[in-house]
Amino acid sequence: MALSRELVIDESMIKFKGRSSLKQYMPRKPIKRGYKVWILANKNGYCQKFDIYTGKAEDAEKQLGARVIKQMLNGLENKEHIVYFDNFFNSTELLEDLKKKLIHACGTVNPSRKTLPVFKPDRKFEVFSNPSRIVAFKWRDKLSVYLLSNFHSPFGTTEVNRKEKNGTTTKVRCPQALSDYNAIMNFVDKFDQNLNLYKINRKSKKCWHRIFLYFLDAAVVNAFVLYKELHSPKISMKEFRRSVSQGLVADLVIKNKRKAYSYGETVAKKQFKPFIPLEIRHNQSSHQPERDSRRRCAKCSTSKQQVRTNWICSVCRVPHCLGANKTCFQDFHTFE
């Protein structure tokens, strides 16, 4: 699938509670324990690229967020893509580096980051721009939001709806960068939402089982997105998964089916009786009964009346009844 101009980089989680050195703990995520996966998604919730976080590398840079962004955007230089990410990744140095590669980027930022201007706590709206034209925004409605962008205008604003406590809505002005961020940042969330619909959720103590099932579901989600782009009418994820599963098992159906019998015709079941040569059966000196698992008697058990016994011949390995009123063991080793 061709890359859309707008892209989002965010993290996803593979649920796993077993023992693993790669397992991460994310207390603010719906899935708190598991494997962290970096996802590059487009506007349709299509996963373009992924990378499993395996811990700190030996030669890793100090800033993990910047390293992840550069790795995920490798090969997209000079194509003027617009990329959004959250404050875990964002920094002034990263946006300056992306701007040199003609990659537009925007995202929330931690106000305590170095090289950021000092924002005044009593101001509702502030804008700063450095010589590299990296614009920093602060906008406060109920809570303060901080953003960094390397392509938005510092003067661009728009109107958004704010819902009041009494249920009414009012128009308020906010930076265009914040409006674009809120409209686009849910691409990875859309991918996760489709992934969790009818997913293959099987418990396992083996970590690779969970990882395999996660990416199997991811492949189904990507196929579903492609199907919706190319076909109509639209179908639901449940219907798509059902059709995929039916298509996968279609070639496994046995072509040579058994002969169909007419109504009322009875078919006798095959009676299995073990074959032991007579010279072995009639050798009285070596046959001894011994206890074994409970099985059907080879002499007197039938399909209509099943008889089970715990006794088996030590030589023939055939189960037979043995008791005061049962002569199956003796009869088998005496008569033909």
TrEMBL record:
This is PiggyBac transposable element-derived protein 4-like. It comes from Sitophilus oryzae (Rice weevil). Residues 3-224 form the PiggyBac transposable element-derived protein domain. Pfam families: DDE_Tnp_1_7 (PF13843).
